Amino acid sequence: MEIVTKFDLGQHVYTIVAGSVEDAKECPLCEYKGLVHYSSPEFEGYIPCPKCDGTGIIKSIESVEWTVIQPFEIRGMHITTAGIKYFVGAAYYAESEMFATEDEAILECKKRNKHETAPTDDEGEE
Ligand SMILES: [Zn+2]
């Protein structure tokens, strides 16, 4: 079986990543304390809050923002049943997150960021 790859080893590509904008709120169960009172026939006392994992805060992802990373060299390929992953810079990326030019990468980011609120259908069928 011959495997066709879109990119070559040593090629420099632009990658895109999704950065999440997080919001931290007070845990409604323990109210920032990180501990909750627990009682059972065997034990009574304070235990780490199971809702927030003892941190006292609940993190939620408010929005996702795609950004372009400066070009890195492809240093490896990893073929899986789900497709090819490329080792670029210091992490693995899928072909759909890699671009030969910065313009393409920026365009894809804009498309993905816009998609969250208003899906467009002017790009034709894929
Ligand atoms: Zn809590």
List the defining traits of the structure above.
126 residues, 2 domains, two-stranded antiparallel sheet, 1 helix, 7 strands, 11% helix, binds zinc ion
What does this entry look like structurally?
- The chain has 126 residues and is mainly beta.
- The chain folds into two domains: 12-20 and 62-115, no CATH class; 24-61, no CATH class.
- It has one helix at 102-115, and strands at 12-26, 35-39, 44-48, 57-80, 83-88, 91-94, 98-99.
- The strands form two sheets. The chain has a five-stranded antiparallel β-sheet with strand order 6-5-4-1-7. A two-stranded antiparallel ribbon has the order 2-3.
- The longest helix is centred in the C-terminal third of the chain and has 14 residues, at 102-115.
- It is elongated, with a radius of gyration of 22 Å.
- The model has no long low-confidence stretch (mean pLDDT 88).
Task: Give the gist of this structure.
With 126 residues, the chain is mainly β. The protein is 11% helix and 48% strand.
List the helices and strands and how they pair.
Blueprint: E1 12-26, E2 35-39, E3 44-48, E4 57-80, E5 83-88, E6 91-94, E7 98-99, H1 102-115
Antiparallel strand pairs: 1-4, 1-7, 2-3, 4-5, 5-6
The structure holds zinc ion (ZN).
Zinc ion binds next to loops.
